[in-house]
Amino acid sequence: MRLQSPQFQALFTPGLRSVAELFEKKNYELRIAGGAVRDLLSGMTPQDIDFATTATPAEMKDMFTAAGVRLINNKGEKHGTITARLHEQNFEITTLRIDVITDGRHAEVEFTTDWEKDAERRDLTVNSMFLGLDGMLYDFFNGYEDLKNKKIRFVGKASERIQEDYLRILRYFRFYGRIAEKPDDHEPSTLQAIKENAKGLAGISGERIWVELKKILLGNHVNHLIRLLYELEIAQYIGLPLNGSLEELDRVAKNIQNLCPKPMTVLTSLFKAKDDVTNLDLRLKISKEEKNLGLFLVKHREELTKAAGPEPLRPYQDFIMDSRDTNTNSRILELLKYQGEENLLKELQQWTVPSFPVSGHDLRRMGMSSGKEIGAALQQLRDEWKKSGYHMDKEELLSCLKKL
Length: 404
What we know:
CATH class of the largest domain: Alpha Beta
Strand order of the largest sheet: 3-4-5-2-1-8-9
Radius of gyration: 28 Å
Helix content: 40-55%
CATH superfamily of the largest domain: Beta Polymerase, domain 2
Shape: elongated
CATH architecture of the largest domain: 2-Layer Sandwich
């Protein structure tokens, strides 16, 4: 087939046209590769575009240098990737490769001009396609059929692809949550291969695992996929608690639908105690803010709830006003998502945190001089202000102080 969609046509910026001309002059083949092809075939505009070519890195460097094109970020060169900058746009172009030696984490590669051999070393059929700049699709492993049928399959034998890089286990689940229509439409042989190779994830860095896990947590079928991580004995190798609360996960997964939670908000549903957050951090090296959000949700998810009566949001507002932490507001928003409080979430998103209108200077002008006395008076006034729902202004509070 030949693709000519508006999304495909929109890729042809002055930069891409210039790159295409250079490759054409030298008779090097250049095609769009991997995820960008998948996105274009799904009618989406790709966020990142990777290119593949028959030219070697040395040939590309000579060609770009002779044309006066700036080359940046030479870190990818040993893997065959050259990054060129034209018309204020970066183009990442990789020579076709074959994996010669793999250890489950890294691969030693050899360059090739065989497009099928390069497609063969990719993880999933939907990620193994190429698209010519004329719109022609090159699909060696029925990736387009799988994409149309919303099937996620490994290229060739699942166990072989997994053993080349064990992170592909999590990439399988990530793309399943992004593309598959039904929650439980896996090939039994694929799940078996994943289970047999799960232990390989123990040797993958926590940072790489966390990148994939976060995407799984924000995709579709999240509770089904996390259950599979337990059933296939993967959880223990990626920092998840051995006895995660799967029933709580089911409940929270319903709560957070359409509320755009942070990955940590979803994941915290598995945790029973703060030690679970600490252990996750030890394995995955999550950020300080992610860790603090997890600890916050574990601590407050049951005790901090909406009030009965006309002001259900007040406990959350009071908590924010009493806190000295600037991140409390965003953590409370995540707590409301966790609890499924959609209406309160909208209300809090529109609420502006008020500033306490009285200062120590105001009290000094009223004749107070002792720091201790001023501190006590300010606390009294803050309590009154809180009782008023943070509505009393400076005048009302100072007149109130005279009565106190």
